[in-house]
Amino acid sequence: MPAAFAPPRRPDETPGGTCVRRASGRLRDLILPVNVRAVRSKKYGNDVLAGDWRRPLKGRIPEIAAEPGLVAEDPDSGFCGAVVGCDKFGVTLEDRFGKRRVFPLTKSGFLIDGKPVTLVRPDAAPGAAANTPARSASGSIAVKGLRAQVAKESRIYVEGVHDAELVEKIWGHDLRVEGVVVEYLEGVDDLPAIVEEFGPDEGRRLGVLVDHLVDGSKESRIAAQVTSPHVLVTGHPFIDIWEAVKPSAVGIRAWPRIPRGVPWKEGVLAELGWGDDVGASWKRILRSVNTYTDLEPALLGRVEELIDFVTAPAP
């Protein structure tokens, strides 16, 4: 069994780091006084906004590599944010409120400092391969020559083996950099007792990722029983971690809706025609996940939040 998936309270080495970027935009308005007559320059036509703004009067529109942290604006929607991901499907921007949206990489499709640009994938930009640092599956800068370090006392708990394997595949490098171990619980029914046995304090924090953490669910009632300020219990809305993988990554149109009373995984396999081997099906799903862009934002934000919590320095 891989070290990162050891049962709770078993010391080990696996670990995380994270980077959160914020972006902001600015809108300017020009208001002419009522009694002032506007003077029209002969340099422009009747309407300076007429025509296609994507076609500059002089020169060609520059191609810019969509590197993480680059701030760009989608002129059609007005959405402005920092690049947090870019793949063949488009570029993902995150605004200052943490909201993410994916936009296609169209020609002259963005504004940077008010000027139209064409965003391209970093590996498609001239000279990008030589100048772009290697990145981990989570999008963070990869640390070369990483050596295992003594694990911190702080921990991240997830519900099951599948959750742990998915976190390891995307955030494993980051977690090893930080010296944080991820352990699985095999369910959260006994979470209050597990937290008490862990003994959290300021230098020994605990983060817990819970499946199906929505209002009124059994999981939400259990999570509410944990009140320690040194424990962060958060989660995603999906019934199972499988649903946190984007359907497009797996090659399906959508995850099936399974009626209450039917075991979820078995119901999904029957609907998709994948047979009845849950283990083999999970391996198929896990193989389809290569980077964080293959996961739903509802999971990404929660894992990043947990890593931030358990690695935050003591006040």
Q: Could you write a compact summary of the structure shown?
A:
With 315 residues, this protein is α/β, with parallel strands linked by helices. It has 8 helices and 11 strands.
Helix/strand layout:
Blueprint: E1 63-65, E2 71-73, E3 80-87, E4 90-94, E5 100-103, E6 110-112, E7 115-120, H1 128-131, E8 155-158, H2 161-178, E9 181-184, H3 191-198, E10 206-210, H4 218-223, E11 231-235, H5 247-250, H6 264-272, H7 278-287, H8 297-311
Helix content: 10-25%
Total number of strands: 11
> Uncertain regions: pLDDT < 50 for 5+ in a row?
1-53
Q: Report the structural category.
A: alpha/beta
| Percentage of residues in DSSP E strands | 15-25%
Through-space gap between termini: 36 Å
Compressed to H and E, one letter per element, the order equals EEEEEEEHEHEHEHEHHHH
Mean pLDDT: 78
Specify the overall morphology: globular
What order do the strands of the largest sheet run in, or round the barrel if closed?
2-3-4-5
Count of helical regions = 8
Main sheet specs: 4 strands, antiparallel
| Radius of gyration, in angstroms, nearest whole number | 24 Å
Description:
With 315 residues, the chain is an alpha/beta fold. Among the domains are: 144 residues; 69 residues. Helices cover 23% and strands 16% of the residues. The chain contains 8 helices and 11 strands. The strands form 3 sheets. The protein has a 4-stranded antiparallel β-sheet, with no helix packed on it. It has a 4-stranded parallel β-sheet with strand order 9-8-10-11, covered by helices on one side. Strands 1-7-6 form a 3-stranded mixed β-sheet, with no helix packed on it. Strand 2 and strand 3 form a beta hairpin. It is globular and about 65 Å long.
